[in-house]
Amino acid sequence: MAPESGDAVLGRRARVLGYAFAVGAGALWGTTGPLSTALYSEGATLTGVGFWRIAVATLGLLVVGLFRRDFLDVDRRGLWTVGLGGGALVALFEVAYQYAIAGVGVAGAATLLYTAPLLVAVLAFLILGERLTPLRVVLALVVLIGVYLTVQGGEGVGSLFESREAGLAAGVAGGLLAALAYAGTTLLARWAVPRYGATRVLLLELAGGTLLLAVLLPAAGRPPTPPTTVSAWVYVGLLALGAVLGANYLFFSALKRIEAAPTAVAATIEPVVATALALVLFGQTLSGAGWSGLALVVAGVAVGYLVEARADRSDGRG
């Protein structure tokens, strides 16, 4: 057998590193639910958790911008489209996802979020004219069944709601709204990232979301009160550095080394990590049906990404 060339070895190492980055991104995203649950125990409000984690992340990116002036150089179209439009989607996601975590538990919230690929496929069909094949419809049904089983088999933070039924309703509504917001940011990224770069888009969306929540939450009678303990600030910092900034940078780094589909598949470790952490740290358990539902969600989403990649290659786009 002929020895591998230097380029082949470097290419293989790059792919391995790409998969590692993607898994790392999914794992960091998976800490969102457990860290948010820890903040609830510190007395944080549902709306406050989402606000402070993106506010701290925005400040971190602005500090980077002080050393890279071109980082803040964005035209008016980008400010309005990404800053305002993307910021509104981020604001919706941050509030809705906290209700999902509290209402249906970490596992249920994570699996509800994974209806986003289904929403992306439907919206891309309606808005962008992309294909919606029978196999994608079947996979979407598999994911929906999995989400239902996971939500029914899990548990939320009951003390934050009047009853389990109220929490379940709020959690499902919040999870679906979070998935819709995530699907919207995905479609927006397809347009914005090639024009402005991933880091600028992330800054614009986070800054826009922070400003909108700073205005809308007090107007709605729910001002984002700051954390009152050192440990709560530590949790907020970990959310900002890990689940917001670190996860996105790892995900973008993975995309530079491997294709989008395997990157997305590797990142589906997110709900598994979230569920495992919630079980170990807070005793949030899943029934047998719940674990089966989680497996269906991960499998359905992963196969969907792989099918999309194969379709792209057959069309000459990959």
Question: Could you characterize the architecture of this molecule?
Answer:
The protein is mostly helical and about 325 residues long. The protein has one domain (about 30-315). About 80% of the residues lie in helices and about 0% in strands. It is built from twelve helices and no strands. It is globular. The model has no long low-confidence stretch (mean pLDDT about 80).
Provide the fold topology.
Elements: H1 6-29, H2 32-41, H3 46-67, H4 76-113, H5 116-128, H6 134-153, H7 164-196, H8 198-219, H9 230-255, H10 260-267, H11 270-282, H12 288-314
Counted beta strands = 0
What kind of sheet is the major sheet?
none
Question: What structural class do helix, strand and pairing data support?
Answer: mainly alpha
Q: Between the first and last Cα atoms, what is the distance in angstroms?
A: 30 Å
Using only C-alpha atoms, the radius of gyration works out to 20 Å
- Assembly of the depicted chains: single chain
Q: Name the helicity range.
A: over 70%
Number of helices: 12
Low-confidence stretches: none
From the spread of the alpha carbons, the general shape counts as globular
Helix-strand sequence = HHHHHHHHHHHH
